[in-house]
């Protein structure tokens, strides 16, 4: 999502590390005050990003069933505390309710934070960040450049493949295919006329890309200079400090 | 089967930051039996307009009347098959839609979707291969073993096998060699003249517009800039240049001749017309110079 907030301008490495760290420390919180702090912190980041809240709520929607299922499990199967209601093996206890609420908060906070990361960072910058963060693994002969290249190519071709899929679906629709209609078998059969052309064109495209890269002298990542240079700024160091402070607060409040 | 647009607008992804305008208050009619060319530079809304012709897209405002069916923003996505059968659509680079094991099966795929029995669809395929000018032995080959130009003919045959009344083509000659292009255009002329098929074609080749079309629609920024006969459209070279569109070679040639003192009552469109108009003027010209 295009934008020009402080979060958009941060170093993708800092954002990646901070987001993962944040998701980790969410599990430290075991009390209402701790969750309140996390909630306020996340919401202020959402505000700073200047992205509409709708997009974050949309991020929660696909996981809604998983969240509901987990929360209900917690509510009905946690024992302890005052019992409000009981029916066979199902019990509604104070701790159960509390745990359910905590789990719900955790889910929402984690989804909001990861949505924030993906909405403020272009996918290619994320790939750069991963490459940069994986660099130390070269010592154990991990193919960092290759993995990074695979990642950037995969990300780069997601929109292209989506365009291609729409195009081919339209072409087959024009030839009388109904997508999303009929029984399961009929729907599965309708996918064949999309998948085969997509495979063929992906292989052709991969071939063309390899030729084009070779023609421009690509010979592996070693010693290759970068077009997008990652710059660690004061803001990024401050973000790390903020994370440290947040950790301390959470430990105190837990 | 006439296709009429009544004040049609189309917005891409409305209500998101990626919202974009595809068409804006377009009203036009594509008459049954016409050979319509749609021109306009990249991003003018040509492809968006095309996809309304067989209800792949529904207008976000206005009405598209296709034969006796009205497509409005509220139209249900079901029961549109009849339209798709009557309006055959050949997309840009249609060779990318081939998928079957043999050419014959691929051509028969469309008709079978519209309920034609397999035996008849296969028989139609044999006929279509001949119609698009491919040798009969390609029928049993895999479409992926053919050359690019042949694959495109197979794709077009696949659409023609549906026996549409209207044939919609999005830059059907893009990327073909000159001979392939001429043969392809000759095929469409044959379908238009012999079978009375309505042809709608998006093209950047002004020569094709001048030579084949009898109705031209000019789009700009999703709006209808002008519509009329090729002669009306090409009569105003300055206007076309302002719209980033070119002139057919014949008209360009005539323009150059006008600068040299030749007079044309109307814009010549085909080479034959140009030759005839020149012939009428040349003897006197030559005579004058001799004196």
UniProtKB/TrEMBL annotation, chain B:
Coiled-coil-forming residues are none
Which GO MF terms does the UniProt record name? ATP binding; ATP hydrolysis activity; ATPase-coupled transmembrane transporter activity
Query: Is ATP-binding among the key words of this record?
Result: yes
Query: Can you name a GO cellular component term?
Result: ATP-binding cassette (ABC) transporter complex
| CDD domains per record | ABC_cobalt_CbiO_domain1 (cd03225)
| A Pfam family recorded for this sequence | ABC_tran
Report the residue ranges that make up the ABC transporter domain in this protein. 3-246
Q: Could you say which enzyme class this protein belongs to?
A: translocase
Membrane-spanning residues: none
Q: Which UniProt keywords apply?
A: ATP-binding, Cell membrane, Membrane, Nucleotide-binding, Translocase, Transport
Q: What is its EC number?
A: 7.-.-.-
The cellular location(s) given in this protein's UniProt record come to:
Cell membrane
Q: What is its main location?
A: membrane
Name the InterPro entries for this protein: AAA+_ATPase, ABC_transporter-like_ATP-bd, ABC_transporter-like_CS, ABC_transpr_CbiO/EcfA_su, ECF_ABC_transporter_ATP-bd, EcfA2, P-loop_NTPase
Membrane topology term: Peripheral membrane protein
Q: Does the keyword Endoplasmic reticulum apply?
A: no
Assembly and interactions? Forms a stable energy-coupling factor (ECF) transporter complex composed of 2 membrane-embedded substrate-binding proteins (S component), 2 ATP-binding proteins (A component) and 2 transmembrane proteins (T component).
The record's function comment reads: ATP-binding (A) component of a common energy-coupling factor (ECF) ABC-transporter complex.
Q: Which family does it belong to?
A: Belongs to the ABC transporter superfamily. Energy-coupling factor EcfA family.
- In Swiss-Prot or TrEMBL terms, this protein is called Energy-coupling factor transporter ATP-binding protein EcfA2
Organism per entry: Latilactobacillus fuchuensis
């Amino acid at each position: 999502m295009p934008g020009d907030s402080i979060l958009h301008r941060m170093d993708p490495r800092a954002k990646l590390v901070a987001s993962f760290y944040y998701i980790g420390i969410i599990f430290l919180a075991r009390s209402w005050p701790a969750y309140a702090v996390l909630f306020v912190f996340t919401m202020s980041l959402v505000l700073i990003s200047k992205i509409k809240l709708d997009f974050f709520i949309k991020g929660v929607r696909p996981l809604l069933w998983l969240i509901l299922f987990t929360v209900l499990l917690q509510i009905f199967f946690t024992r302890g505390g005052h019992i409000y209601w009981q029916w066979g093996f199902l019990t509604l206890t104070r701790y159960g309710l509390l745990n359910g609420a905590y789990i719900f908060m955790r889910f929402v906070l984690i989804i909001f934070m990861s949505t924030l990361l993906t909405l403020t960072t272009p996918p290619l910058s994320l790939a750069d960040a991963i490459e940069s963060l994986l660099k130390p693994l070269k010592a154990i002969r991990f193919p960092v450049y290759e993995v990074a290249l695979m990642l950037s190519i995969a990300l780069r071709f997601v929109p292209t493949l989506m365009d291609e899929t729409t195009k081919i679906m339209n072409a087959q629709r024009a030839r009388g295919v109904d997508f999303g209609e009929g029984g399961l078998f009929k729907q599965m059969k309708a996918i064949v006329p999309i998948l085969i052309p997509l495979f063929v064109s992906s292989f052709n495209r991969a071939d063309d890309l390899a030729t084009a890269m070779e023609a421009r002298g690509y010979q592996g990542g070693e010693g290759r200079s970068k077009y997008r240079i990652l710059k660690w700024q004061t803001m990024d160091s401050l973000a790390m400090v903020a994370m440290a402070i947040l950790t301390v607060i959470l430990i105190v409040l837990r | 089967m006439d296709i009429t647009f009544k004040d049609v607008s189309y917005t891409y992804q409305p209500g998101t930051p990626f919202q974009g305008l595809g068409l804006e208050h377009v009203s036009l009619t594509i008459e049954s039996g016409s050979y319509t060319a749609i021109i306009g530079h990249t991003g003018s809304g040509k492809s968006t307009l095309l996809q309304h012709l067989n209800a792949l897209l529904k207008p976000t405002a206005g009405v598209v009347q296709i034969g006796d069916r009205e497509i409005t923003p509220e139209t249900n996505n079901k029961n549109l098959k009849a339209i798709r059968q009557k309006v055959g659509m050949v997309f840009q680079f249609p060779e990318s839609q081939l998928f079957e094991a043999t050419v014959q099966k691929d051509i028969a795929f469309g008709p079978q979707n519209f309920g034609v029995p397999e035996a008849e669809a296969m028989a139609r395929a044999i006929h279509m291969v001949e119609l698009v000018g491919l040798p009969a032995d390609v029928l049993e080959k895999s479409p992926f073993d053919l050359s690019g130009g042949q694959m495109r003919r197979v794709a077009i045959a696949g659409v023609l096998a549906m026996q549409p009344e209207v044939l919609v083509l999005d830059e059907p000659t893009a990327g073909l060699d000159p001979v392939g292009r001429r043969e392809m255009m000759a095929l469409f002329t044959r379908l238009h003249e012999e079978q009375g098929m309505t042809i709608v074609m998006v093209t950047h080749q002004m020569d094709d517009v001048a030579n084949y079309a009898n109705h031209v629609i000019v789009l700009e920024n999703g709006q209808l800039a002008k519509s009329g006969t090729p002669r009306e459209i090409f009569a105003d070279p300055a206007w076309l240049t302002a719209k980033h569109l070119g002139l057919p070679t014949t008209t360009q040639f005539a323009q150059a001749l006008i600068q040299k003192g030749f007079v044309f009552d109307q814009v010549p469109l085909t080479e034959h017309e140009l030759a005839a108009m020149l012939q009428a003027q040349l003897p006197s010209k030559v005579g004058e110079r001799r004196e």
